[in-house]
Each structure stands twice: as C-alpha cells, then as structure tokens.
Write a structure and sequence with these properties.
Blueprint (H helix, E strand, L loop, with lengths): L3 H30 L3 H27 L19 H28 L3 H31 L3 H11 L11
Helix pairs in contact: 1-2, 1-3, 2-5, 3-4, 4-5
The structure holds hydroxy diiron-OXO moiety.
C-alpha cells in the first residue's frame, strides 16, 4: 500500500514527465522551424518516450489504488539559440529529472516502500541512457561547430532514430 505522501510525490513526478514531453514538443517545433528536420523528428520521438514514462507512472498509481489528480502542465518555450543550445537545454533538463527521481527514490527507501522504490529504479536507469545519448549528440555538434555540412550530416543521422517504447523493452 503506497503512502499518501508518496502518492502526492508521484503525481508531481507524473506531471513532470508530461511537462518533459511538452518541452520536447517545443524543441521539435524549434528544430523544424530552423530546417533541422532530423532533429525535429528526434525530439518528437523524445516526446513520445516521455509520454510513455508518464503513462507507466499513471498505470502504477492506478494499480496502487491511488487517488489520481492531474494538475496543469506548465507552458514551455519554443525559442532556442542554436542546435547546440537546444541539445544543451535538453541535457540540463534530463539532469534535473534525474535529480528528482533520485530524491523520490530516497523517499521510497525511507518509507521502506519496495514496490515504489523498484519502479523508480527503472526510471533512474533509463536516465543514465538518456543523459549519455544527449551528451554524445552535444559532443558531435561541438565537433562540427558552425560547419553547415557537418550540421547537415548530424541532422541526417538524427533522422534515423525510430521510436521504441522504452517501457516495453
Ligand atoms: Fe527523461 O525524463 Fe522521463 O523520466
């Protein structure tokens, strides 16, 4: 049985997952406007992944018989300075999410809620992969700098990403 406190905390996190999806939709819109169609598609997949993260938490709360509330999702910006800027902001956001998930894990551990702790470990592990992937893309963009052909090549590579539901892997 999940405590009222953890229910409340998970609903906050659920909202953050959907807010993340929204942030990535904004990033996709920016990339598309700038002609980076591969990056736009990459961020759309990132959007789908975050929705999947949110749905996994939603399902868990339902399974635990939690009283679900769905607060407003904050608006997001769609303006960035460059392709490098948008990926840097994406990494900073993922690092923020990791911090939140680690804090939540601490709470679950303190409450000796093994089921919730176990759920959260799935997210924590997922974050390692997400941060590494974005970090690698940032390194590639930094390598090419302002070189148009380099950016074009990176954008083409980003276009090859396909959506695989991370909760089903
Ligand atoms: Fe990548 O943020 Fe969800 O968990």
């Amino acid at each position: 049985m999940i405590s009222k406190n953890l229910q409340k905390e998970l609903i906050v996190q659920l909202n953050k997952e959907f807010h993340s999806a929204y942030i990535y939709l904004g990033m996709s819109a920016y990339c598309s406007k700038e002609g980076f169609n591969g990056a736009a598609s990459w961020f759309l997949i990132q959007y789908q992944e975050e929705v999947a993260h949110g749905m996994k938490m939603f399902k868990y709360l339902e399974d635990q018989g939690a009283e679900i509330t769905l607060p407003d999702i904050k608006s997001v910006k769609v303006e960035y300075k460059s392709l490098l800027d948008v990926f840097r902001k994406s990494l900073a956001h993922e690092q923020f999410m990791t911090k939140n998930l680690n804090n939540l894990s601490d709470i679950a551990m303190k409450e000796k809620d093994h089921a919730t702790y176990n759920l959260l470990q799935w997210y924590v592990t997922e974050q390692v992969e997400e941060e590494a992937t974005v970090g690698e893309i940032i390194d590639h963009i930094k390598l090419v700098g302002d070189n148009g052909y380099g950016l074009y090549t990176i954008d083409k590579e980003l276009a090859s990403r396909n959506f695989v539901d991370p909760t089903q892997e």
